[in-house]
Amino acid sequence: MSDIKSYQRLLAVQAIYETSINETETDAPIDDLLLHIIENGNFKNKINGSKLLLSKEIYKGVRSNLEKIDSIFSNSLNSKRNNQSFDKLLLAIFRCAIYEIVLKREISKKILISEYLMISNHFFSNKEATLLNGVLDNLREI
Q: How much of the chain is in helix, strand and coil states, percent to nearest 5?
């Protein structure tokens, strides 16, 4: 990853993930949450001077549309798996991607799938990337 927007997407995914595993983080201001992730990760040199507007927009968009995003996700699965059976980090990646692809709609689906595949490769093996690619390619609105 080399583009500042790619790093901001990764930050948003990590913020969504962190709030899914730590209930006390859900009440933390987004600026504090992102600062915590930046300080504890290797982002400092990669996003210097950024106001993190994309990270904040994705985070807020996912949080305020969570029910709709999860419904779109469930409708796009080929199997009868539910959201609870997925790893929380993988689910955070799905949620951010679905927000950008289906609800925000500012960038082409193909580019966003590529972006989120890079993020998934940051954490997971090819198996999860294949699943992510298939589900995102098969997104169906409700």
A: 75, 0, 25
Cα angle for residues 8, 12, 123 (degrees, 5° grid): 90
pLDDT for 18-69, tens place per residue?
999 887 666 778 888 888 888 887 766 667 667 899 999 999 999 999 999 9
Q: Pick the closest to residue 74 from 57, 96, 91, 93 (CA basis).
A: 91
Lookup: tokens for 117: 């595949």
Structure tokens at 93: 């990646």
Q: How far apart are CA 32 and CA 30, in angstroms?
A: 5
CB 126 within 8 A of CB 118: no
Q: Which amino acid is at 127?
A: K
The one-character DSSP state at 132 is H
Query: Angle between the 30-40 and 53-64 helix axes, to the nearest 10 degrees?
Result: 120
